[in-house]
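step 4 of 6: structure.
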Amino acid sequence: MIRTISAQKITGTVADLCLKANLVLRPDMLLLLEAAHSRESNKKAKKALEMIIRNARIAKREKLAICQDTGMPVVFLELGNGVRIKGDLKKAINKGVEKGYKKGYLRSSIVADALSRGKAGYTPAVIHTDIVRGDKLKIAFLVKGFGCENKSALRMFNPTVEPGQIKRFIVEAVKKAGADACPPYVVGVGIGGTADYACLLAKKALLRRIYAKRSTLNAKLESSLLREINKLNIGPMGLGGRATCLAVKILTYPTHIAGLPVAVNLNCHALRSAVATI
Amino acid sequence: MKKINTPLVENEIKKLSAGQEVALSGIIYTARDQAHKRLIQALTTGKSLSFDLKGAVIYYCGPTQRPKGKIIGACGPTTSRRMDEFTPALLKAGLKGMIGKGGRSKEIRTAIKRFKAVYFLAPAGCGALLSKYVKKARPYAFAELGPEAIYKLKVKEFPLIVGIDYKGRSVINEPF
């Protein structure tokens, strides 16, 4: 059975996701921030965390953007092979972004040409599509601010590398970002695949719910990295303290015998995403 | 918390030390990447600037659109380091204060010391909260730049931390 989904339906869903992601902080992020706040002993850092939490409450209550950098919209689609789209899928998504961003008084941050720049608008979004089994369309919407996107890192390791070196590279990426990209961070890590695919995995890792189940191996590496990163003493606004990183999320993929790509995609404390299934 | 006003005068700047919390009131001007580029072009070609830099405070910020019934949208700081290449010329021309987030290069720390200026940290990623401290806002120059235009803001007790003081001391432990 082929199920038909109209372009209008997609546009409406994307518009809603834009608003939800930009105005309401993910509940798992709020929980992490509250936990970080309650265990912080550095007075200045604690106060900064308190302001971050207050900011999220004000944004939700007053329908204000959590952050003025309403990001580059990044859309991840899981399109069922039993779905027929009536209309143009990409156009429908970008129309939804336009609609949502306009409605939410969000910022136009996208320039049409990376080199000649020019006047900023809302679109296009960066769109990744996976074809999966089924008759549904899952849309995950990520608001990626560029303060943190600018601190992304990629390294093509030798296959014989010691795990310690990989860890050092990831910790170093956070150290280099320092206080510039709005700590405490969520650190997305992609390991394996190709250079481009490792980068995609690192970004996709940010979409995972913080408390979602993962393999024991990844979980072990994640918590060990979290401990290491939090020894950096960067803290919110760069004021020091225990909260430099709130969570590390790792996604892995098979890779070639000759290599080991590792990508880091940092996110600020305002990790903004929303998901819907049509 | 220490209260200070714009325009900033050297006597007051010298009372501030890195790490100190301050509440800033008065006029500040937003300017980020493209506005900085244009300000520097104007300075180098001898054109008059859109505002008097003497004692002025620049806020590295590009707000969201103004929602109906509000003074301004979310208006938190952007990454200061991107403005480093333009900053020494502005300090030389009289700029006294900058507001942003994150660290600055060694060159900027030196320039701040040389020109007896100050760099403030605003609560990063708190654009909704910070909008509450803005009492007036209007586009002031380069309106065609949209969110990157220069806005003139009147702020009341804008919550800041001294990031780099006039002695060039930084509250952020700089890795570089």
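step 5 of 6: annotate
 - The helical segments of chain B are 10-13, 33-44, 87-92, 106-114, 127-130.
 - Chain B has one domain: 22-164.
step 6 of 6: archive
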